Amino acid sequence: MKFLAHVLARVLLPVAILAAGGYGYAVLSVQPEPEAIEPPPEQVLRSRASSLSVCDYPVRIETHGVVGAHNQVTLSAEVTGVIRSTESAFEAGAFFEKGELLLEIDNRDYRTALKVAQEQHELAKANLKIAQNAHSRMQELARQRSASTSEVDGTFASLVQAESEVEITASSIEIAQRNLEKTRIYAPFDGRVVSKTVGVGQLVSAGTTLGEVFAVDFAEVRLPISSRDLRHLELPEMEGDPAVDVELRDAIDSTRGAVWRGKIVRTEGTLDADSLELFAIARVEDPFGLRTENPVLRIGQPVTATIYGETLHDIVVIPRKAVRRLDQVYLIDEDKLTLRSLTIDPLWSDSQNVVVSGHSILDNELLATTMLVYAPEGSPVEIIPEERPASSLAGEPPELDTTP
């Protein structure tokens, strides 16, 4: 019996193992039915939108410059002498009118020189009268054969010399008169004093600097204009060309509301060697408000300038903050609410707007103004209602939102 149990154990155990293995293979080899996988919901982008319309756009070019005097000169002495007096109009910052006395040099020596010249002129005229009489008598004696030809020639030579002396002394009077006039320095134009470099009692000579002044009838501003902007402007090149309007504002204090209106009256003949910009010259009448109620525009004042150029027709204005890199914008189909990207070719741009041709925008499309980080072509879009914009400092527009 033990032998039989031993034999059965050795036979049945492998059979059981094989049966269990076959059953396990049969169970595990059956492929499970695939579970139904639901597709993920389509992602809907959320963006604010603004309508676009075809319109006309006047180009305004922004540039900058520094106000300068159109005529600034250095006053110099023309004669030697001691400064006898200076007028209140010849002080730093003082205004003066054309022909107004500014300062005076001691003129006593020049009055004496003028008197001497006048007396010499009178003496020369008397000598001329004597020479004329002598020559007349000698000619009469020669006709009576009582004088020789050489004697007549001698009186004629004396007459010529006397006439020359009269002319020379007359010129001396003119020189002495001019020197006397030069002792009084008058204003060459309506202007203002920049600096005074002399005082009463100071000895000056011809060429000594007395001070610096500039004219106040109008001021000029040298404005750089890039080659890109020149195509939108018709600047005056020749005399008689129409001037171009320009507005100037304070570049130091932007909160100051002062506006100076001027005109570009000419351009320089060459481009700047470094920047390849053309400089236009703007003129502002009465910069110190002497004849009008204009605010004061000081010489040396930095200003920003707005130049009015041509008007672009049939265009669309896009806010610069809605333009992505590589000149790309996103448009929303107003009917289908789907997204479309568009690479624009700007006709004009500034710090606020980008102007493109109206032919590239469809009539039923809106501009996506939210900064979309991921925006596949044709994606559905949910338009976010516009919020009431909050006031910001310095009048800046609110920043664009960012939507992933």
UniProtKB/TrEMBL annotation:
Q: Which domain of life is it from?
A: Bacteria
List the InterPro entries: MdtA-like_BSH, RND_pump_MFP
Span list, region Disordered: 385-404
Q: Which SUPFAM superfamilies match?
A: HlyD-like secretion proteins
- Coiled-coil regions, chain positions: 107-134
**UniProtKB keywords:** Coiled coil
Recorded hits in Pfam families, A to Z, give: BSH_RND (PF25917)
Q: Which GO terms describe its molecular function?
A: efflux transmembrane transporter activity
One cellular component term (GO) for this entry is: efflux pump complex
- Where does the Multidrug resistance protein MdtA-like barrel-sandwich hybrid domain lie? 71-212
Query: According to its UniProt record, which protein family does this protein belong to?
Result: Belongs to the membrane fusion protein (MFP) (TC 8.A.1) family.
Q: What is this protein called?
A: Membrane-fusion protein
